[in-house]
Amino acid sequence: MENKDCNPHVLILPNTRQSHITPMLQFGKRLVSKGIKVTLVTSVYLSKSMHVDPECSIAIETISDGFDEIGPQNAGSTEAYFSSFRINGSRTLADLIEKLAVNDQSATAIVYDGLFPWALDVAKQYGLFKAAFFNQSCAVNSIYYHVNRGLLTLPFTGSHISLPELPLLLPFETPLILYIYGKDKTRPGLVELLTDQYSNVDEADWLIFNTFYKLEEKIVDWMSKLWKVATVGPTLPSMYLDKRLENDKDYSINIFEPKTGACMNWLNGKPIGSVVYVAFGSVANPVPEQMEELAWGLKGINCYFLWVMSDSMKTKLPNKFVEEIADQGLIVSWCPQLEVLAHESIGCFVSHCGLHSVMEAMSFGVPMVGMPQWVDQQTNGKFVDDVWGSGIRVLQDEKGIVGRNVLEKAIKEIMEGDKGKVIKKNVMKWKELAKEAVDEGGSSDININEFVAKLLCCS
Fold it and tell me: What local confidence, expressed as pLDDT, does residue 282 receive?
């Protein structure tokens, strides 16, 4: 499709989770800073509730996921939601591309979430440049790729899993939905959804990853033999890294309203490195037994703690727990995680090991206690502990629960132990390498510049 004004115009299509929107939006800001027009494409339903910074440099357009009025929470299952998005999204994305063309804003390229492989087919239909964006680590994507191509079969057999340029993995160190395949909680549709990210990837022009080269050097080199691969992370606001994008101070779009004032006022009164920050993202919802162990474990560490939890999680806390920890902890429904991790009072981050949270922590030099919950987090936790040396991974018992004593021991080791000193030194190294990657002449900066040059050739 002809781009009438010859100015490259990129449509960015993320999954509707905050952890997928944020990295792709930040990548879009980098493109805008280099003269590319960028439009974020999201669902009709989500657009109604997003908190958008009025100074955001990226336009927003909507397509339908099939749940415009009632929301994806009424889809019945993740699989049903993605199936509906594929059907309705394909049709309405095509409509959007045609509408933009009529308004002299023709699209040049689509950067689509790897979970939406159908977007590649729409891009092909209109002759657009097509780039898949992956919000999992290259290690995790390699595992999904091998399953998709039949090179790694489910259910797993044997004691270890050996894949090119990855450490030997125990079966439980793979993405959870793969590990439990063939067991009581099997969801074949979800396995298919995750591994289908690689179903048509050979037709993509570029594969973009929210990581940075030195973090996953060997696996990036291996993948680069198969596809045009670009690492563009860490995808944080520029003010926290290279400071080259003058007005890039926050994520600009939030699904949840952060309790910024309450969090920062509370942290401001705490000594340097004295606070344990606890957050498990927007999806994880631990069972009551786990919430109880978490609660008593945090109470027992004799440290201050800031704990982010949804209202549904809060109902699982022990009786009178909130009152009992009033002088020790603060519990909030959502917080400005960037500002929190950047605060000098934070000494440790108890995390579910979602990739973007891991990237944030390492970009700020904050050591982690990894407590993986779901999907790719088991593999991320393995790398946080055994490969990157940026934290301690705590493991579940035979009942699937991380006990309070295990949690206490890990936090105390980070905060005051000898191993904690080594980990703190490691994360400071990763902090410098993260900044180096996005700064002028860094690996991510070079990749973004090459991507921009390609877009200019396509327009």
Answer: 67
3-state helix, strand, coil in the chain (%, to 5): 45, 15, 40
> Which helix (H) or strand (E) element contains residue 229?
strand 229-231
pLDDT one-digit tens code per residue, 298-318: 999 989 999 998 888 888 999
Please spell the DSSP secondary structure of 348-406, one letter per residue: EEEE---HHHHHHHHHHT--EEE---STTHHHHHHIIIIIS-SEEE----TTS---HHH
Token pair recorded at residue 456: 């200019």
Q: Which amino acid is at 444?
A: S
Per-residue model confidence (pLDDT) at position 186: 66
**Contact yes or no for 85/115 (Cβ under 8 A):** no
d(CA 114, CA 91): 18
Compute the distance between CA of residue 235 and CA of residue 240 in angstroms, rounded to an integer: 10
Give 49's DSSP letter.
Answer: T
**Token code pair at residue 115:** 């979970």
Question: d(Cα 366, Cα 289) in Å, to the nearest integer?
Answer: 28
Annotated catalytic residues are: 20, 113
3-class SS of residue 161: strand
What was the pLDDT predicted at 459?
Answer: 66
Is residue 181 within 8 Å of residue 174, measured between CB atoms? no
Give tens-digit pLDDT for 28-83: 999 999 999 999 999 999 999 888 888 888 999 999 999 999 999 899 999 999 99
* Contact assessment for residue 402 and residue 369, using Cβ atoms and an 8 Å cutoff: no
Residue 213 is which amino acid? Y
Model confidence over 337-358: pLDDT tens digits?
999 999 999 999 999 999 999 9
Judge residue 239's burial from the number of C-beta atoms within 10 Å of its C-beta, 0-12 exposed, 13-18 middle, 19 or more buried: middle
366: closest CA among 434, 309, 308? Answer: 434
